[in-house]
Amino acid sequence: MGKTRLEAFSDGVIAIIITIMVLELKVPHGEDAHALLPMIPIFLGYVFSFIMVGIYWNNHHHMLHIVHKINGPVLWANLHLLFWLSLIPVTTAWMQESHFASQAVALYGFVLFMASVAWPILAHFLIKIHGNQSELAIAFGEDRKGKISMLMYLLAIPLAFLNVWIAIVLYIAVAVIWFIPDQRIEKNLHHE
Known about the structure:
Layout: H1 4-23, H2 40-65, H3 72-86, H4 88-97, H5 102-130, H6 135-140, H7 144-162, H8 164-179, H9 183-189
Helix pairs in contact: 1-2, 1-3, 1-4, 2-4, 2-8, 3-5, 4-5, 5-7, 5-8, 7-8
Pfam family, one: TMEM175
InterPro entries: TMEM175-like
Subcellular location: Membrane
């Protein structure tokens, strides 16, 4: 089966996720710059979550660009990834509302961790139908970057209870690692 509907559906869900996050931003109360101060943590949480969702969208786009077909397991694996991404707005809002309380930061990390688990599952099922010599299989390789990301999230979750800022720095470090689209796939895109 073709991949067009999967791409369109995924793009739509990700657009809705971002829309939900932006709707959480409220107009400041007041007329001067001081009215913006209470909004700083809310805005920073929004920016970071927007970047995280954008990273997934960007890499999802690249991954689907080099595959040619999908099947039922791929559809379910993709839904699994989208499910975890869809929880980013609510966990972001809780972090913001709680002023980055440890439980909220840990739950946010858990959602990011589960999305990072869903990503290689999707890749696995795509590789399974395209073969171990496919562009995706070659590009995905051993997925060291993905494994390092999962490990960093796993470390950050309990660390959030000791010091939320250490956990947040680890979340940011993972975002930095993935900010530029996956070079393993980028290299294969340039061969077309």
